Amino acid sequence: MIALTPGEKAALAALGERERRLRRNAVLLSENDRLTELFVLKQGMMMSYVLLDDGRRQILRFMFPGDFLATAALAYGTSPETLMALTDSIVCPFDRSVMAGLFDHHPRLAAAITALEQMERVAMTDRLAAIGRTSAKARVAGLLLELRHRLRAAGNSLAKGAAPASFSPGITQEEIGDATGLTAVHVNRMLRQLEDDGLLARDGGRFTVLDDARLARTANYVDRYAGLDFGWLPQPR
């Protein structure tokens, strides 16, 4: 999307010099933990969530390779969310002061990172708005479309050799429910409805989209990763 200069590429690569390995279900940060670092997700899949007063979990985001994690550290001293690995993962930590250096020495790169974070925020806003304003079937369909897009964008190995419309979301029905405000039983019922409507086919943990256009209409889905405008970015130094 953005053609980086050699200096910008080197600065971006420097963010990944240190690595921390996480096993599946390991917690990287818990709510209210002190924040001093940001992270780049190098490998695997992670999620962020908050725990409600009644003990229920609301999943906010799913993260894929290349995503920045714990960006709240740029504004807050403690974490507003829990970050957990959904698969064995590798994250690259860097001190939040490094971002100050990027704004100073590579302002275009820092601005691009900020813009990409806004894209993630808008996509999350769509999904959280859907929880209160759309049907259960639309919520599930929208989340599946979002996950499919992110898996493709991240070059997920599970998609290699698969049919173009086939993908494995890599999350459980319970996690789909926690992201859409539904119970696992309700999620299963909605998946069956999507199958009965001829929109999806399931084979174990793999989904095949049978009618992209109808599924997108059912979900009221807007692809927030299309039509991005980076024309305002400053010229590289």
Automatic annotation (TrEMBL):
<keyword id="KW-0804">Transcription</keyword>
<protein>
    <submittedName>
        <fullName>Crp/Fnr family transcriptional regulator</fullName>
    </submittedName>
</protein>
<dbReference type="Pfam" id="PF13545">
    <property type="entry name" value="HTH_Crp_2"/>
</dbReference>
<dbReference type="Pfam" id="PF00027">
    <property type="entry name" value="cNMP_binding"/>
</dbReference>
<dbReference type="InterPro" id="IPR018490">
    <property type="entry name" value="cNMP-bd_dom_sf"/>
</dbReference>
<keyword id="KW-0805">Transcription regulation</keyword>
<keyword id="KW-0238">DNA-binding</keyword>
<dbReference type="InterPro" id="IPR012318">
    <property type="entry name" value="HTH_CRP"/>
</dbReference>
<dbReference type="InterPro" id="IPR050397">
    <property type="entry name" value="Env_Response_Regulators"/>
</dbReference>
<feature type="domain" description="HTH crp-type">
    <location>
        <begin position="134"/>
        <end position="213"/>
    </location>
</feature>
<dbReference type="InterPro" id="IPR036390">
    <property type="entry name" value="WH_DNA-bd_sf"/>
</dbReference>
<dbReference type="InterPro" id="IPR014710">
    <property type="entry name" value="RmlC-like_jellyroll"/>
</dbReference>
<dbReference type="InterPro" id="IPR000595">
    <property type="entry name" value="cNMP-bd_dom"/>
</dbReference>
<dbReference type="InterPro" id="IPR036388">
    <property type="entry name" value="WH-like_DNA-bd_sf"/>
</dbReference>
